[in-house]
Amino acid sequence: MITIPVITETCAGIDVGKRGLAVAVATGPADKEAAITTRWCGTTVPALRELQAWLRACGCTSVALESTGVSWIPVKNILEEECRITLVCARKHHPKKGDKTDFQDAINLAIYHRHGLLTGSYLPERGIVELRDLTRRRKKLIGAIQSEKNRIQKVLETANVKLGNIVSDVFGVSGQEILQALLDNAPMMAAELANMAKRRLRKKLPQLTEALEAHQMNDHHRWLIEQSIAHAKFVDEQVEELEKKIEEQLQPYRRQYELLMTIPGIKEASAANILAEIGPRMDQFPDGDHLSSWAGICPGNNRTAGKSKSSHIKKANKFLVASLVEAAWGATRKKDSASQRKFYRWLRKLGKKKAVIAMCHHQLKVVWSVLKHGRPFIEPDPIVLKTIERQKQIRHHANRLRQLGADAEAITAVMETLLADEPVATASAPANAETTEAANPTCQPRCKCSSQKMKRSLPRGVLGFRLRNAYKDLYSTVKEPTGTTLDTPPPKTTKRRGPTRKKAGASVEQ
User: Fold this and answer.
1) pLDDT surpassing 90 at residue 470
2) Is the model more confident about 384 or about 448?
3) Percentage helix, strand, coil, to 5, in the chain?
4) At residue 439, does pLDDT exceed 60?
5) What are 460's strand-pairing partners?
6) Is position 357 within any domain?
7) Does residue 306 belong to any structural domain of this protein?
8) pTM higher than 0.90 for the full model?
């Protein structure tokens, strides 16, 4: 008979509900079976104080608490003064169907906790909890603003105003001016409305005029749009105040916040979101793989009968995953970077969705390394990366030629010639993008003006919506004469879209 040793002689298990708690206390010596005592308790502060006194009288100093929504937080606030709290995920210890009651759950928690069979969840410090509340609220409010913008565009469509077909950002400088003229019911022709366009949008004046021609906007449409604008402006002002509050809350974690912004793709908002979700220290995660598993961005294990089956990522912290996906897309757009090379290599094998998740997994491991060692991330030198890839290709093709029966001595001679003729990097950096062990600890973070960027308020258009670009000099709400810099589109820049596959039959450069 196998006997599981007892870790704690006196402990308690609590099944948490909104209006009541089922409490079970297991007491007794380690070499004997525990005596179970149960009790029902309310969730008000006086009732929790009575529960605290009862646990003290029983000699209980360790409590296993089931994580039920937010109902466990009031219990933790009171009991953590004298007891060690172990927060347990209910899904990991769910009893079989037909054998579940509140007191049975509490008894199981107490017995498992007595033998040390429960795995506690990560409980961040109070400062991180408050920062997490602020960042999550910001995400919700930004989503509310976008919902109002979608409602405005829906009303414009019903009024035969096809502005969204031509303008990429209806609530930019040009879009807000045109929309304000429509709301004012000014006696203007479609060409006059289209002439309010600025900069690059002036190249689409004919299409813009056609989109505004003979619109059917009436007072009903204007009233609906004004309601949405008023609500969106109010929420936008709340977001602006919330960002100032987040900046104040980040002060104790300024070093970790700036370290995160040295990683490609992670900017001010993403750094604050990631820091709020995982905390400033990585003591609770042994390595980057454990952090990725906790965040739910690594493949699940689905192996049976010696066969590995396909498994999707698990549902975990949706706020952290959303920030990582946004940061991953930003990292893939940095030219000649290790992140971009990894993404396009995974893209050919896995497809877009899986490649993005793989990129999130890679970035979170970098985040763990940066926060664990307290050193900024240093991007590997592009010349070093190209040299490593060239060496891999040379060895791969040499092995293929040997398998096809080519002369080994001739292949070795060609390899030595090719490997000797390699580009020399002017400044080398760690080639492995997943670690910063060799990084210079005195190196300053890449973003030196992050605090000034967050404190600076974004300019607003005539409707009151904040604009995407933070520099007021680039835009103007006043019409400029023809020939000024506002009417002259900037020179075109070609963007690198990543490596493309050559079509069959196309010539290949040697």
Assistant:
1) no
2) 384
3) 50, 10, 40
4) no
5) 466
6) yes
7) no
8) no
